[in-house]
């Protein structure tokens, strides 16, 4: 009788353990989902700040070199915050889908940051040239190198955007999440006729 009671207690403890594991797992998954949504929305809002800044530039029509330099610095700061935010969640999440997708987005943003850093270098050089601190031959020679660097970086950005498109097509539930949250289009499309998979239903002409 005593052995029977011990056996029952062991079975009950096993059941409680299994139920606790599933309850915790479900809770952890739900928290992961909530934190992903919050993280990607915050990153999207930072991306929208950059987009609005671009619109402001086009609306203004012209800017001084110092204003453009300040604009590029601000974009680089925003991109750094965005990368740090996504990396932090990527390194904490239990969800492999989130992790793989954010790896692609971090790569894209890293290349975008490099492009802005190159543009910043270009405008700083131009300022030196305007101030007479650099010869025209030195300026145009260095500018040619920077332009080539920017072109290579922009090609890499398109590659990562295509990777994101292809990944979201394989994970429609994740794509629906981004759509429902109204996430910035940079996270799921190649806009303005960029390169990429034109057969993708996410491709924007």
Structural summary, described in words:
The protein has 205 residues and is mostly helical. 80% of the residues lie in helices and 0% in strands. It has 5 helices and no strands. The protein has helices spanning 2-60, 65-90, 96-130, 136-170, 172-180. α1 runs antiparallel to α2 and α2 (65-90) packs antiparallel against α3 (96-130). 20% of the residues are buried.
Ends distance: 77 Å
N to C succession of SSEs: HHHHH
- Shape designation: elongated
Indicate the radius of gyration in whole angstroms. 24 Å
What proportion of the residues form beta strands (DSSP E)? Answer: under 5%
Number of strands: 0
Low-confidence spans: 192-205
Q: How would you sum up the major sheet? A: none
As a percent range, the share of helical residues equals over 70%
| Structural class assignment | mainly alpha
Discrete helix count:
5
The average pLDDT is 82
């Amino acid at each position: 009788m005593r052995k029977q009671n011990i056996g029952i207690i062991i079975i009950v403890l096993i059941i409680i353990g299994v139920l606790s594991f599933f309850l915790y797992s479900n809770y952890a998954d739900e928290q992961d989902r909530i934190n992903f949504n919050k993280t990607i929305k915050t990153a999207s809002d930072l991306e929208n700040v950059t987009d609005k800044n671009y619109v402001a530039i086009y609306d203004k029509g012209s800017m001084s070199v110092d204003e453009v330099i300040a604009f590029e610095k601000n974009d680089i700061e925003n991109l750094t915050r965005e990368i740090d935010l996504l990396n932090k969640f990527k390194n904490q999440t239990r969800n492999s889908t989130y992790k793989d997708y954010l790896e692609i987005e971090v790569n894209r943003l890293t290349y975008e940051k490099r492009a802005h850093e190159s543009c910043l270098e270009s405008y700083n050089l131009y300022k030196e040239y305007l101030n007479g601190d650099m010869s025209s031959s030195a300026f145009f020679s260095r500018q040619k190198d920077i332009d080539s660097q920017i072109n290579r970086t922009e090609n890499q950005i398109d590659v990562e955007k295509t990777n994101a498109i292809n990944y979201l097509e394989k994970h429609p539930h994740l794509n629906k999440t981004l759509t429902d949250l109204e996430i910035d289009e940079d996270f799921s499309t190649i806009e303005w006729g960029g390169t990429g998979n034109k057969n993708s239903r996410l491709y924007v002409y």
